[in-house]
Amino acid sequence: MQRYKDIVSGAFLLLIAAVLYTATFNIRTFMETAYGATFVPRLVAIVIAVLSLILLIQGIQKARRSEGEEGAETVPKSGRHVILTFGLIIGYILVLDKLGFILSTAIYSTLQMYVLSDFNRRKIVLYLIISTIASVTLYLVFKKLLYVMLPTGILG
């Protein structure tokens, strides 16, 4: 069953994306803007669907390659990554108002990439640069384009 986990996950997430996209048609808009209340949920549903399809295709390819190899099941990673990820998420939630969106998201993303990266290939400076650029970009998109208020924290 371990061999088919990507196929099952991809199919399940594709179903979730379809349900999410369909549910956006029930969102009521109260004012007419260039990007209404349905824009972000539909965008998220489309991104989830595309990534799910990629996961599904890769899972099928991996299952086909490993069909001839009996007993070649991969061993799942330890629960340490999961526990650290939950800890980081809780920490992110706790400091979001105090530090603000940009700082807390940059710190969280950097630490999350560090936790999930291969031990021999960790590049903390690269993670910090990527996280900072992504955090500032997300902040500007939500603040200036979508008019969503985000916590400014100590930068405000």
Structure at a glance:
The chain is mainly α and 156 residues long. It contains five helices and no strands. Helix 1 packs antiparallel against helix 2 (39-65).
List keywords for this structure.
single chain; 156 residues; mainly alpha; 2 domains; 0% strand
Number of strands: 0
Order of helices and strands: HHHHH
Structural class: mainly alpha
> Multimeric state of these chains?
single chain
What fraction of the residues are assigned to beta strands by DSSP?
under 5%
Unreliable spans are none
Q: Helical segment tally? A: 5
Average pLDDT confidence is 84
How many domains comprise the coordinates? 2
The biggest beta sheet, please? none
**Shape descriptor:** flat
> Helical residue percent?
55-70%
Instruction: Give Rg in angstroms.
Output: 19 Å
User: What is the terminal separation in angstroms?
Assistant: 51 Å
Polypeptide structure, described:
The chain has 156 residues and is mostly helical. The chain folds into two domains: 2-65; 79-155. It is 67% helix and 0% strand. It has helices at residues 5-23, 39-65, 80-99, 101-116, 124-145. The longest helix has 27 residues, at 39-65.
Outline the fold blueprint.
Layout: H1 5-23, H2 39-65, H3 80-99, H4 101-116, H5 124-145
Helix pairs in contact: 1-2, 3-4, 4-5
